[in-house]
Amino acid sequence: MLSLKPSLSKGYELKSLEKFITQFEGKTISVALHDLETGKELYINADVMMHPASTMKVPVMMEVFRQTQAGLLSLDDRLEIYNSFTSIADGSTFTLEEADDSELMLYQRIGETETIRELTRLMIVRSSNLASNLLMDKVTTARVDAVVKEYRIADMHIIRELEDKKALSLNLNNATSARSSTRMLKLIAEGKVVSQHACEEMIRILLGQEFNESIPALLPADVKVAHKTGWSGKFFHDIGIVYPPNRKPYILSLFTYGFPGNDASQAHNCMAEASKIIYKELVENIG
Fold it and tell me: Which domain holds residue 218?
């Protein structure tokens, strides 16, 4: 693992956050913060490339809305629900395991159909792997990667669908960083992806996130967070747009590696505390 190398910009220092992070020996914790209220930024290990886990579902959503805007599909179009996908490793087929997914109802509906709108919602708020792969089959993985490049989001690569284990074994993997994730969400927060209306719809979906153990967990109840979590093995992430009352939002991406995969609470607690520290110093000026 890389050692902690804080990179601070625009005079913004969060010494309490740096001190907090240094206690996690043997772990990599990446922080990328951009405050739309003040323009302040903070980057700690922000360029470490990691497996994005389910945070990669946000660019899938971006491409869905791009194709909707282009008239290539409608959110009300219905897709067949199936569980057979093609590996980029050798063209063989693979299926998703219910045990590895956080949304199970779609597996009971194989052969039925569902709207692109609902599949997109399930992909984000319940992190449905099955919904994600169905959507990636529809819009194509190549186009998801292309939309990232078109918006000049550096260091984000989407090359395969979820649970393509043959590809993973060959190190054919999606990759991103905390900095690139914050860049992506900043564009959405500013209404610069596809259209203002599309961004508002994407934010509305992200606000419905049902897994709230990390960035939102220790924030005041009146703070809204439009976010997407991700977990795979020893990778635990949360990326979001944080909306404190009576001010512009800030964008925060927290990536972690090295916490035990069989005890998610340790990673969640770390990210929740980091988020709380940032909120107190950024919004309440306590620190």
Answer: 1-50+177-287
